Amino acid sequence: MKLLVLHAHPRSKASVVQRAMVRAISGLDGVTIADLYAEYPDFDIHVAREQQRLLDHDVIVLQHPFYWYSSPALLKEWLDLVLENGWAYGPGGTRLAGRFLLSAISTGGTQEAYRHGGRNRFEIAELLSPFNQTAYLCSMAYLAPFVIHAGRQLPAGQLAAAAGTYRDLIVGLRDGAIDPLSRLAPGFTLPPAFSAKR
Known about the structure:
Elements: E1 3-7, H1 17-25, E2 31-35, H2 36-39, H3 47-55, E3 59-65, H4 73-82, E4 100-107, H5 124-127, H6 129-137, E5 141-142, E6 146-149, H7 156-175
Parallel strand pairs: 1-2, 1-3, 3-4, 4-5, 4-6
Helix pairs in contact: 1-7
């Protein structure tokens, strides 16, 4: 399968974890990395171009730091503009049916902070529900998220290992060694139009 990684970090040069993740998957055949902040510094998103990029790929990866329990602003703008009614969802909006959506995020907090009773009160899967629902609305399958927790606190070796695990996931999906249907987010039900396009 072909993968499109939509990387969104407004201060990429200052990033530790996200840069390690990008480095780990850079140069892979069949994997396109789009640095949204480099391409659209003025937020003037080329909708038709982005829609064609989506159509050219099977797995869409939203890679970003987990800002305020969501994504950086440009990725939200991208979703608002590119996933148009009548194209990605709504009447006649089945252009993305049968594709897969994966959230690949980094958090400042530890894994223990993202649980019931923890500092952030909710689990990561719950906080990513808007992305889960976006996939469903667009007749896509939402995969279990890939998360690196508290990456800035990790020793260099552990961060490299985590980035390597990310690379293994991307390569496995690309090569078919990992069946994406076996990695659906817990509780995710395939949309009715999903299988019709696969």
